[in-house]
Structure formats: C-alpha cells, structure tokens
Amino acid sequence: MDLLNDWPEPIVPVQSLAESGTSVLPDRYVKPPSERPSVDPAADRGEHISIPVIDFAGLTKGMAEWRATMRLVSDACREWGFFQVVNHGVSVDLVARMRKVWRDFFDLPMEEKRKLANSPKTYEGYGSRVGVEKGATLDWGDYFFLHLLPPSIKDYNKWPSLPTSCREVTEEYCQELVKLCETVMKVLSTGLGLDAGFLQKAFGGEDVGACMRVNFYPRCPQPDLALGLSAHSDPGGLTVLLADDHVKGLQVRRGNAWVTVQPVPNAFIVNIGDQIQVLSNANYKSVEHRVITNATEERLSVALFYNPRSDLPLGPARELVTEERLQLYQPMTFSEYRLYIRKKGLQGKAQVESLKATN
Ligand code: OGA
Ligand code: NI
C-alpha cells in the first residue's frame, strides 16, 4: 500500500519541541475543545474512583481462590475493560531495569534516536505520530515500537543498540510479560464460561503475535489544550501497561466521563483490546482510553500488546452467540483490522463499531 510508505509531513519529535523551552503549544498539538482534557469530575469531588486492583496471589492458592480471582477479573473486564494487577510474579528488579533502559534511550541525543526513525509501513522504530492523514492534529508524545512475536518478525537490528543492555533487558522483560498474558488469557476464558485454553487457541495457539510500544510524554507547555495520546481502544488482544508509579496520565472512559488511573506501586495495568471484545461477543469491553500531559514531569510507559495471529479471521465465539445475544461482529483478520488505525490514526471506538454485523 503506497499510502503507508512514508509520513505525509516531516516528523518533529515532541521531545525536541519540549526541550526548545517554548511556553506556547504549537498549533498542530492544540486539540479541538471537545477533546481537551477536562477536570475529572469524581476526583474533583474528592472521590478517588479508579479501575479495580486485583491481587494475582489468589491464582496460586488453590481452586477456590483461583475462581474468586477469576470472578474479579471477569467483572472488571465486563464493567471497566481495565484493571490493575499486583503480585503478578514479574520481578521488581526486572521492571526497574526495564524503566531505566528506556529512560536512558529517550535521554540519548536526538541524532542517535533518529537513526531508528520509523515509517508507517511497519511502525517499527522511533516515532512521533500514528496515522498518515495530512494535517491531522498531533499528540504530545514520542514512542518506540517494536515486534516480538512471532519470532520470524523479531528483528534486533530494528531495536536500539544503545543503551547497551536495552535489547537484553527488553527481551527478558517481554518473555516475562508474555507468560503473564498467557495466564490472563486462561483467566479471561474461564470467566466467559469457556475452557481455560479457549482464547489462546482462538489467537492461534503457539503462533500469537506480540509487540511493544514505549511511550515518552515530555513536559507540555499547555496541558489543558493537548493530549499525550488521543482517545482510542487498543486494536489487538490484550494490553499490559507498565506506567510510572508517581506520574498520573492515563484516563479511562466511564460513560461520559474520563476517570484518571491512580498508579499503584508495582502494578501493571491490564486492558482488553478490540479482538477480545469481538471474540467475547462484547461480554468483555475494549474501553476507550487516552493520556493527558502535565507541565512539570515527563512520563514513561511501556505497553506490551498481546495479539492474535495476524491471518486468522476472528469473530465472536459460537458459544457466546445466543438468541438473547446475537452475533455482534463480522469476522476479520487482525492484519486487515490494524490497517485502519495505521492509516487513520487513533479514532476512539469507531473501528470496532464498523465490524457490527448488519443482519
Ligand atoms: C497505548 C496506551 C497509555 C499510556 O500505548 O496504547 O494506551 O499511559 N498507552 O501510555
Ligand atoms: Ni492504548
């Protein structure tokens, strides 16, 4: 697809704009009023409602506790599409090393990072926008995107060679996170009343995909006019996000409001992507989320996307289509599905809506 060969306009890393010390947000980043961050109404009333926090220690304590934990996950995915997980088994030290190598990467001189500049063809590398629509309003964030699975598309040459431990730490981190995703997939399958292996099998068994996006949100001169990442739902299967412990930024849609996620130390934020919404026939929700910026602190997050094999047409599980709940979506392969976001950028939930079965 020619359209995806290159960006429609020269890329300006947000970090370089932030470092220029401007006190005025450049026009390209000014969101229309309806998209600008508003005060979180609940937080404003002093009610710190947030997404559920679930302790995965319950998964290692016998059947009754396993099922109780499964119910918490299932409820969270039906109601919020999001939860935070603690006692997930990933070592604190590995998480700290992962944060450090990626902070160090974004601290490298711009010439070094730009050697790995990405194109919209695969998105792999250092980038500053999603979508190729000329003149689009941009988000106040840079990122690094890389492929992990299947092994045939993993290409270390496209990963940073600096800092020197970046590849090794990233590899180790991703292996641990993939194991966590496999566990979550079993819990999610059981929570739908299906076999524990159901979702894994539907994703292609051993042939699943995985990729990673490290987001870097520089300080923003006018946080009330910008977004770090526009509202979107994640197109893939499951996302596990490592966010900063001390800087808030992620907001999750709850009806007409945006609820700010309160970071919990040593937790991951897990959310359902569009492919699991489709497979579960909308029992589990892939919920819109966005990132707000702030004027005083940089923020780093690492999103691991666990995806179905790209060439399998995915539609709602037959077991979840009933007379009361008809088949909501038409099947599509993930490679076809993700072209939409790669061209149009982040568009809330418009894409999954477009799969609605017309019968
Ligand atoms: C994403 C995402 C949230 C964040 O990368 O898809 O939603 O807090 N990131 O960076
Ligand atoms: Ni997301």
Automatic annotation (TrEMBL):
**What keyword terms does UniProt attach to this protein?**
Dioxygenase, Iron, Jasmonic acid signaling pathway, Metal-binding, Oxidoreductase, Plant defense
InterPro entries, per this entry? DIOX_N (IPR026992), IPNS-like_FE2OG_OXY (IPR044861), IPNS-like_sf (IPR027443), Oxoglu/Fe-dep_dioxygenase_dom (IPR005123), Plant_2OG-oxidoreductases (IPR050295)
* Signal peptide boundaries: none
Q: What positions does the domain Fe2OG dioxygenase occupy?
A: 207-308
Q: Which prosthetic group or cofactor does it need?
A: Fe(2+); L-ascorbate
Keyword field contains Iron? yes
The processes (GO biological process) annotated in the record are:
defense response; negative regulation of defense response to insect; regulation of defense response to fungus; regulation of jasmonic acid mediated signaling pathway
Identify a single GO molecular function assigned to this protein.
metal ion binding
> From what superkingdom does this record's organism come?
Eukaryota
Entry-linked PROSITE patterns: FE2OG_OXY
Q: Which reaction does it catalyse?
A: jasmonate + 2-oxoglutarate + O2 = (1R,2R)-12-hydroxyjasmonate + succinate + CO2
For the keyword Metal-binding, the answer is yes
Q: In which family does this protein belong, per the annotation? A: Belongs to the iron/ascorbate-dependent oxidoreductase family.
Its name, as the record gives it, is 2-oxoglutarate-dependent dioxygenase
Q: Which organism is it from?
A: Iris pallida
